[in-house]
Amino acid sequence: MTRILFIELLGGLGDVLIALPAIQALAASHPQSQMTVLTFAPGDSLLQHHPLIQQVLPVPKGNARQAVIEALQKPYDVIVTDTNYEGIAELVQQSGTAQTVVNVWRQPPPDQLVSDRILQILLAESLITGSAAQAYHHPKLYLTEAEKALVQSRLGTVRRPLIGLYPDAGMSIKQWSPDRFIALGQLLQERYGVYLIIPEGSNYHQVQTILAELQGAIYWPRQTLRELAVLFTQLDCVVAADTGPARVAAAVGTPTVTLFGPAWHGRYGQPSPHINLQGYPSCPERNVANFTEQPCWYSGTCPFAWDTCVNLITPEEVAAAVVESGGVGEWEGVGEHGSMGAWEHGSMGAQERHAIDASGVAASTHLNAAPPHPSTQTLQGGSANTPSLLFKNGSAEREAAIASTPPCTQSLHPPITPSPQPFPSWRSVRNVLIMRLDNIGDVLMTAPVLRAIKANRPDVRLTLMASPAGAQAAAVLPWIDEVLPWRSLWQALDNPPGDIEQDWQLVQTLASRCFDGAIILTSFKQSPHPPAFICQLAGIPLRLGASSELGECLTHRVADLPHDLHQVERNLRLIEAVGFQVQVRDLGLHVPASSWVPAEPYLLLNPWASCPSRMYSLERFAIAARTLSDKTGWPVVITGMDKHQDAAVSVLTSLKDRAINLIGKTNLSDLVALVAHARLMLSNNTSTMHMADATQTPSVILFAGTELEQQWQPRQTQARLLRRPTPCSPCYAFTCPYELECLDVPSQAIVEAALSLLRRRN
Questions:
Q1: If you count Cβ atoms within 10 Å of the first and of the last residue's Cβ in the chain, which end, N or C, has fewer?
Q2: HEC profile for 1-13?
Q3: Within 13 Å and on the Cβ side, how many CA atoms surround 114?
Q4: Looking at the DSSP assignment, which residues form a beta bridge with residue 700?
Q5: Best CA proximity match to 44, nearest among 167, 170, 141
Q6: Phi-psi region of 452 (alpha: psi -120 to 50; beta: other; left: phi over 0)
Q7: Spatial distance between the Cα atoms of 52 and 10, rounded to a whole number of angstroms
């Protein structure tokens, strides 16, 4: 028996499905093999029940390298990896395995699909047969009869043709706006008499905005990936942005129209006969070889007049593609390769869409707000989109193929620029200063850095310099040896401390500690150079920070961190640049014991934030908490500082006997314990969000448009982030001049999101 391991840890749901044809072809080329796939959750669930895959090893996000190390404890005959970061390629090469391929993500020609390129390289390595490559050119998912029956029972009897509109996408620059989905749906209804279903992604209000304008459309609440896959089998066509669910639809054989913006459809599109539409094909900023190096990917915004090039694709063009796909033609069932079975023609029945709250989301911007660029055109599927895949297997062709494909590492964000040489000086440090001069939540997110440094060098002494507020977080960060509170300028706008005497006092304080290294952690909009200058004056020899600006204050500077990188990942990339190995990337905190934690199950409400622009309505929070308490029977623990007592009166009055009032009674350690033991938390984008992420407490977060979600959002707990999309986001403002339109979210939306999380956890 041939034991094969395929490592797919690029991070995206779509990456798993791009790699699936190669996984299938590998297994089929070795009929007596045992195929094991190592991939991130939740994408691992899509590979369940696949007859060619014997074992799937799910990996939590942020644990890639350690998962590979553990997997390599078992012997394999063949290992293929599409993942090279964190030294994973080197681990595979040094594993002693007879045959390894560590660079399948090589640059294909502009109009060769990446999935085809991987097959081509495996052919060149003589690991798969040509017949297997042809037979398994398309990814395929396998669903059980029980799963099909469950979804069919929920869907009920509907009329045909039934078209799915999936509006969600991971990044705003990849999204086709709700007003265009509305225009498409109305056009399909009026011109072709179709029936529509709108599955919910990660944005509840996005779906409700569309449903409010499409009479008779069916709302499909967010469920598991496999349930979504079964739903797609029931549809005649799916329209979606360039995102994982679009690939799920194609992998179950449903005709799919995929809308592309930053990524080039010729490399990342769906194989024919699925149709790919490209926004602004002639974009001068496009990097076909690596779209993550484009300016729009770094900033999250398009550099041109429109909000995103995806919106240059018109509803008329998408409707024409739906017709071309056969989605609105003469319908008949096509078995497992498309919509399953024959459907009875009848009314919508039990699957009527949910009504939107009358105070909910208003209509989006008009279709013609940004006129198309004169050179805009639509490129659809066909021969130009799916060129010839295979070449004859021979040594000359193999050498030519490998020579023509220089190595290329792909990940969600481009890797940091490698240093020209290692930094032995950082390997010898004994006394390190960590500077994070912001609020409690920012300091909590230093935990993975502190943990990694201690794991690399247990003998290192770590001193945290933080604001007086942020210094409180040290109580739950067990890797800190000493805390140095300091009131920085931006923490004291009412009484700025920026006088010469105070600055000189700080220099003398740091000099007296004899630090041999300082790591300055900042957000993307902060400069590390002023604190680095203070450290330079204090005689600290090594000074590390992230900045695109030149300067002598930093001895080690990381210049190419993307602006939309998550803050935790930004911190970790910084220390990785100077040689520290990171095994665990998750947020983690020490959870202390606290006498304030109730013995009974409870909901936790923390309705405060450090700046007014991130404060959701206290009245709506109270209504949502009261409703959830009535539905679950659990009391509501309300937390906050003593200064919140007066503002909390209305909340406590609304909750009445359901409230457990702990406002002003707890310290930060107590708060962490209360968050950790709660069944569910309701909060704004504030420090409690990070506490819940670290303790894996399910959370509904009212996330204002002040920041980008991907920079701060929870990464390891089940969470729902709610806000209204607004053109001013992200504003990074302390106060809002627009009456907090981004937080105009109905309380019922909080209740529904919370109940969904509780059902999923149970």
A1: C
A2: CCEEEEEECCCCH
A3: 25
A4: 682, 720
A5: 141
A6: alpha
A7: 22
